[in-house]
Amino acid sequence: MQRRRLILATGLALAAPAPAVWAWDDKGDPFAFVVDVSNEILDEIRRDPALAHGDPEHVRQLVDGKILPVTDFTLMTRLTVGPDWRKASAEERQRLEQGFRGLLIRVYSGALLQVKDQRCELRPTRVKTVKDEMVIRTLLKASGQKDLGLDYRIYRAKDGAWKIVDVNVEGIWLVENYRSQFASVLSSEGVPGLIKMLETRADELAAKNKAKS
């Protein structure tokens, strides 16, 4: 579980304000884009002691500065909520996004403690066909540790930029995993119940993290 959280934190968390010029090209080679994004996030974690210790505010800055610009988080949230997304009002959709984002930030703050000398590399493959929708398969490597699989589902947006919409951690897709967790709440309490659950869980995790600090 700790290893899965580490990879998800690397992929989505889920630092200091982002630089004005990105180190990656979000409209170029999708394989290089995914690897460059992952490694810049890892470098940022190592550079910022507060981020490396999982400080939620620094994690939030990382998400706002580096993750959200390369992620279609609205689509990710919609896919996670499933068919009930269509029943939600504009305000409820906004709260669902905020609640899901807050939950991920709190959950993965603790995982950043595991980041040491990890680097992201493409899995060995002879096929590098570029399509508008792709799964980029990578490995997270660290000295003295087993390689860990991390796959990104991406698509090319209308402006030509690549956007991340899902992450697979050793066979477990983030969207599918959370969708199964949310299904029972949506079935019994609907969208308002899921919003309440997300906000309550984020508050509980925040209090837990504060108590540890």
UniProtKB/TrEMBL annotation:
InterPro entries named among the record's database cross-references: MlaC/ttg2D
- Judging by the UniProt lineage, the source's domain of life is Bacteria
Q: Which UniProt keywords apply?
A: Signal
**Residues that span the membrane, as ranges:** none
- Signal in keyword set: yes
Q: Which residues form the signal peptide?
A: 1-23
The record's listing under Pfam families reads: MlaC
Please identify the protein, giving its name as recorded. Toluene tolerance protein Ttg2D
